Amino acid sequence: MPTSDISQRVGAVVVNYNGGDSLPRCLASLRDNGVADIVVVDNGSTDSSVATLSTLDVEARLVRAACNGGYGAGANLGAKSLDRELVFICNPDLVAQPAAIESLTAALDEHPEAAMAGPMLLETDGSVYPSGRSFPNLGDSLGHGFVGVFWSGNPWTRRYRLLGAQQLEPRSADWVSGASFLVRRVAFEAVGGFDEAYFMYVEDVDLCWRLHRAGWDVRYEPTARVVHEQGRSTSLKPYRMLLAHHRSILRFSIRSTSGLRRAWLPFVAVALGARLVLVSADHFVGQIRALMSERSAAKSIPCSGGPESYGGPGRKDEGLGRG
Asked: Residue 270 sits in which domain range?
């Protein structure tokens, strides 16, 4: 597919919140993929990421959100300022690999019944972060939600996340990660875009669920690849993000559950509250252990009287990690 086709058909929305030095790499990768119309929606960043836009050789329009309404609200705002047939929506902390957007565009061309196509997401170490997943049933949700806190390889998590060979196969999927995807404007607008009641998390599941209900398919296309440094901004406020995650799960459960199964919703609410306490405690214990380990390592370094004795060159201050 000629690069000119991409520039004429695809516009990109990058939802930025303290994207730091990841944002320039993201924008450069979109330009290298042939995207000419790029909108950066800033959700009230407090770092220097927005200030750097004027210094880059990548043309991008800046839209400042009136307030930080979350990822979905930012994506909706950016999409409204584009007039391309296809819209690529993404986080600022990813790099689209060569021909990634071309592959996503080809997938939608080959499958006119599909509204959206999501790429393979790669961690910075090259491992695959699972996308193209199934909507979980109650059993898988409970197993993944509770057992998965302590045993990531449990059968419920593997079934829900479709770990294994399925991550290498182009296929239909219930939903793909909102970290990056290509969507038909007509379908996105027909379902009202993202539900802005979700501040963070599960808004991608909800969007795909509504697209399916409207008669569209969703595709997972692993020949399109992006490298994603996950949780850059969400790790700054981990407990707030944990709360937002669990609230979003409950909201989607209420929306997507019908019939006699709605009788389970009070149990789901209690279970989510218990899980929130569990994962918050686990995160807190992890922080304490990391701090103790850092102090222990510092004590083992002999004092030489130089600046390295105070954590100078060679020391790396680790962030809080993923929420």
From this structure: 239-299
